[in-house]
Amino acid sequence: MDSPLDGELVERSLGKKILDYDRDGEAHYGLASAFIKSMRGSDPDAAVYYMTRMLEAGEDPRFVLRRLIIFASEDIGLADPSALQTATAALRAYEVVGLPEGVLPITQATLHLALAPKSNSVLTTYGRARKEVLASGSLPVPKNLLNASTSFDERRGHGAGYRYPHDLGVFAANETYLPEQIAGTTFYVGIEAGEEKELLARRRAPDRASTRAAIDDGVTRSPSAEGGER
Question: What is the CATH number of domain 7-115?
């Protein structure tokens, strides 16, 4: 009668360790969590270690690649916009070359994302906008932003008073774009990290100052709307 397989004997026969991993169990989610947290903490060594643990244990590389793409937007975002390009390019590269060489673009993306400056402003901005949309519902779009594609639309005031930024030479044209009921609400609160610093500087440039003042037609904004909370 054959004896049950001994793990140590199998490992010696295969010449390598048998890695403890269950795609639907604790090991799966534990390694995935450690992988994400290592990148978030900017530790490239730990990130690559957990990435390798998952791949060598038989994890579908696409699972790792999906985590990278999500991370690039959720935890890096505007601080390094090229991170999302790297992550999506890694997925494409893997689909082209397959294994074993496909681990190289995955490793490259992991290193890039771990070393990149971090910002979660994409995540928090969507969260604020979603909270407002769910609270205030389908508010009417300002008439000056509506297209006047017919004479009937023109009579209804669609497009009246819209200022075309290209003609003005500035792209903060003392205009209001949000519905009147929430005008002045701030959803995007950037983080001074990486390339996002430059984007924030643009937003604070002098030609944007007019967007913080009352618009020409006298519409006012509620101070309580500042900061995205109403």
Answer: 1.20.272.10
pTM: 0.78
CA-CA distance, 189 to 200, in Å (whole number)? 9
pLDDT digit string, tens, across residues 152-182: 888 899 989 888 888 877 766 578 899 999 9
Q: At 47, which amino acid appears? A: A
Whole-number percent of the chain with pLDDT over 90: 62
* Tokens read off for 158: 């669609």
Distance CA 107, CA 50 (A): 11
> What distance in Å separates the CA atoms of residue 128 and residue 189, rounded to the nearest whole number?
10
Q: Is the dihedral of CA 133, 229, 81, 209 positive or negative?
A: positive
* Distant-in-sequence, close-in-space partners of 172: CB < 8 Å, separation ≥ 6: 165, 205, 207, 208, 209, 210, 211
The boundaries of every CATH 1.20.272.10 domain in the chain are 7-115
Q: How far is CA 73 from CA 25, 85, 164, in A?
A: 27, 10, 31
Phi, psi dihedral angles at 70 (to 5 degrees): -60, -45
DSSP 161-206: T---HHHHT-S--S---S-GGGTT-------SSTTHHHHHHHHTSG
Closest listed residue to residue 78, CA positions, set 189, 180, 171: 189
Question: Model confidence over 109-160: pLDDT tens digits?
Answer: 999 999 999 999 999 999 999 999 999 999 999 999 999 888 888 889 998 9
Omega cis (within 30) before 142: no
